[in-house]
Amino acid sequence: MSKSFFPPQRTLMGPGPSDVSPRVLAALSRPTIGHLDPEFIGLMDDIKGLLQAAFKTGNELTLPVSAPGSAGMEAVFSNLLEAGDKVIVCQNGVFGGRMQENVERCGATAIMVQDDWGLPVDPDKLEQALVSNPDAVAVAFVHAETSTGVRSDAQALCALARQFDCLAIVDAVTSLAGIELCVDDWGIDAVYSGTQKCLSCVPGLSPVSFSERAITRIRNRRQRVQSWFLDMNLIMDYWGGDSKRSYHHTAPVNAMYALHESLLMVQEEGLEAAWARHDHHHQAFVAGIEALGLSLIVSPDARLPQLNAVEIPPGIDEAAVRRHLLQSWNLEIGAGLGSLATKVWRIGLMGHAANQQNVLLCLSALGSTLQ
Ligand code: PLP
Q: Which domain of life is it from (predicted)?
């Protein structure tokens, strides 16, 4: 007979999910109420306001999609693109490749701008692609590439998109609440994120936000959005400001309590203070990593504080190290992805988990394992 599942008490320092704060877990266990209960509708309003603050936007269409980050990605592309559209996709890691998949599955064409993994997206290459493709309707890129630990200059890339009259689509799954992200000031038209990274919330929700320009495009589509579940025209009736709050799908009520609590924690700390905390603990972590004789693959100016890609020294069985950390230290770090598999460990300092205790734990665990 199967038994109830009691997970081990791990410290999560991989690429996500990150450690969920006990406050968020406590919120998750509160009694479930109906998703159209007036109290829940009040909570939805509050979540929307808190998300707008976290994204630094006044966008009316800001909400958590009831599914993980990949669904937020799919929601953005499937609503904004139609068959025959051309989109410039900048790729410098795994998740830019997923953007390409999404574009192509919408029947659109992806013009790829490639940069080496470990480097940020090069604005000059984007500009050349924009000049060569005056019929492109959008530019898409990943702000924080979780597969490599690289931050791209979202502000510069969005400015170029705007200059060439393209919509700017940004993957902020790993950046939201971890590094500076200013949706309105930078002119982002559509952004999606995840709850399991720097929000320290449970996985399974994807905050998204659309500008007025993006909404106009969605409302004026020639074809219906292929996905019923992700069609923002329908979701607007459930989440929109003056909406009827009419039934669309059964919201994951308890996950929303969790998201609300995690957003409250961001508000209480202050967004800028949260960015600074990530940076502070990242600097300490890097100093420790270098003292262990290890190094990061990304140059200091493009490093993500919340995701550190540490080069694996020659002769090390990287999977055995991760296994040992998990079994003996209850500590999870991440393996490399794609072309960086077996070349790096990905060590996250995300959200609630970006703290001194975790920095010291990881450095001692790694140091003693590698001795
Ligand atoms: N985009 C980026 C940059 C990510 O790091 C991830 C997940 O790690 C995703 C998209 C997909 O999110 P999810 O795994 O929640 O579907």
A: Bacteria
